[in-house]
Each structure stands twice: as C-alpha cells, then as structure tokens.
UniProtKB/TrEMBL annotation:
The keyword Manganese does not apply. Residues 39-191 form the 6-hydroxymethylpterin diphosphokinase MptE-like domain. Catalyzes the transfer of diphosphate from ATP to 6-hydroxymethyl-7,8-dihydropterin (6-HMD), leading to 6-hydroxymethyl-7,8-dihydropterin diphosphate (6-HMDP). Pathway: Cofactor biosynthesis; tetrahydrofolate biosynthesis; 2-amino-4-hydroxy-6-hydroxymethyl-7,8-dihydropteridine diphosphate from 7,8-dihydroneopterin triphosphate: step 4/4; Cofactor biosynthesis; 5,6,7,8-tetrahydromethanopterin biosynthesis. It comes from Methanosarcina vacuolata Z-761. This is 6-hydroxymethyl-7,8-dihydropterin pyrophosphokinase. GO terms for biological process: folic acid biosynthetic process; tetrahydrofolate biosynthetic process; tetrahydromethanopterin biosynthetic process; thiamine diphosphate biosynthetic process.
Length: 210
C-alpha cells in the first residue's frame, strides 16, 4: 500500500488512540540508525518466500494452537504476529516471516523470536512511539531484519500498511503477492482483553477487511 493511501487511515488511528505522530517518526529514525549493511534483509528475500505462495497469517488469539491443529503447514508460507511466533516455535515450527513491535509479550517470547531469527525467520521489526525502549534493548540481538514504520517511510524503513502486528502481517502477505491468505489465531471479538487491545482488534478487523 502506498503511503498516500495509508496516511488518512493512519491519521484516523492516531486520533482514535491519542497517539502522537512525532513519537512514531522519532522511533523510526532511532531504528534507522540501527541498520547496517550486514543486518539488513533485502525486500527481494522477503518477496521470494511470499510471492505466488499460499500464506498462513498467525495471530496470537487464545485459539491459535487449536486452529493450528487443523492445518498442514508444509502447504503454506507462515507469517507470525509477535507472540504467535513463540507458540509456533514451541510446536517446532520456525515461521518464514515474523512481524513484531517487540512489546506485546514476555521476555521469554522475545527470546523465541530471536531464536527464530537465528534459524532463518525474516523478522520485520516495527518502530512506534511507545516501543523505543524495546528497540534499544532487543534490536542489537537480531542478526538480520527489515525495519518498518507506521509513519512516512524513508530509506530502508518501510511501511507496507497495517497497524498492529497481526494486520501488518496480512498487509505484508498482500503487498508481496501471496496467492492466497489464510488466517489462524484471530479472534476479533475476544472480550477477554483490555480496552486498548479491544480497540486494536477493532482496527485489525477493519484493516484486514479493506
Ligand atoms: N484475540 C486476540 N488476542 C490477541 N491477539 C490477537 C487476537 N486476535 C488476533 N490477534 C492478533 O495477534 C497479534 C499478536 O498479538 P500479541 O498479543 O502477541 O502481540 P501484541 O504486540 O500485544 O499485539 P498488538 O500488536 O495488538 O499490540 C495482534 O497484533 C493481533 O492482530
Ligand atoms: N504509537 C503507538 N503505535 C503503535 C502501538 C502503540 O502502543 N503506540 N501499538 C501497536 C501494536 O501493538 C502498533 N502501533
């Protein structure tokens, strides 16, 4: 999705949550300073695992494990949203792609994302105004990654559209030409979550429906 199409949606999201665009921009700049030639994954590498392939996008709803029992993984490129990567790793599955803002989960889950990266997952690390501390702490531990922002993209900081980790996975799958996208571990109506998460799920449902 080009930024001109995304920007009005992004502005509505910022307003709905009361988030500050300047904070997102500062975080993106911070992340850009962590990129080197050695730790940057190319978009062609990402495209190679998605283009023309059926993609399974895994969210981290409580039903993820049971959804996964019905799925033949070998038929899909697996893209995991943040904590979903830990669930997959626990099942012995290394997702091909992970989208994470590094702020949703326990330290143990982040360690599993770092391990997945070492085992070959392409990790898309997302900068936003409320995760600079996490970026500072964990980004040096990821050997290779792609940097993303929800604000205006620049240089090697990309914006493929989407806001929370789950819907960004979906946008990545679409942007890079998945021939089919199946969802697992998405429960947009989950009431067992805090009000901010509820609002994020409302936006996720809307964005994935676009
Ligand atoms: N019922 C649900 N509870 C939690 N996550 C869900 C649910 N349904 C779908 N998801 C998707 O799973 C993604 C990963 O969730 P997780 O809790 O691991 O990370 P998070 O960083 O806390 O999530 P978020 O990006 O929403 O802040 C979410 O971004 C969301 O899109
Ligand atoms: N500024 C800001 N942006 C976000 C945030 C957040 O908490 N703050 N959370 C997200 C999904 O977890 C995605 N983007």
């Amino acid at each position: 999705m080009d930024f001109a199409t995304w920007e009005p949606i992004y502005e509505r999201i910022l307003e709905d949550f009361g988030f500050d665009r300047k904070g997102d921009e500062k975080a993106a700049l911070f992340l850009s300073h962590k990129l080197t030639e050695e730790n940057t994954v190319s978009l062609s590498e990402l495209k190679a695992v998605i283009s023309g392939k059926p993609v399974l996008v895994c969210g981290n709803a409580p039903g993820l494990r049971s959804d996964l029992l019905e799925i033949n993984f070998s038929a899909f490129t697996v893209i995991a949203a943040d904590g979903a990567a830990a669930v997959l790793m626990d099942m012995g599955i290394v997702p091909e792609v992970i989208c994470t803002d590094l702020d949703g989960n326990s330290e143990a889950d982040i360690e599993k994302e770092i391990l997945a990266c070492e085992k070959g997952s392409i990790v898309l690390i997302h900068a936003h105004g409320d995760n600079i501390d996490k970026l500072e702490k964990y980004v040096p531990r990821f050997k290779r990654f792609i940097a993303t922002t929800q604000a205006k993209p620049f240089d090697d900081i990309y914006n493929f559209g989407g806001f929370s980790d789950g819907d960004r996975c979906f946008f990545v799958a679409r942007e890079f030409g998945a021939n089919k996208i199946r969802l697992a571990g998405f429960d947009f109506e989950d009431n067992n979550v805090n009000p901010i998460k509820k609002k994020k799920l409302k936006w996720a449902k809307k964005l994935i429906g676009i």
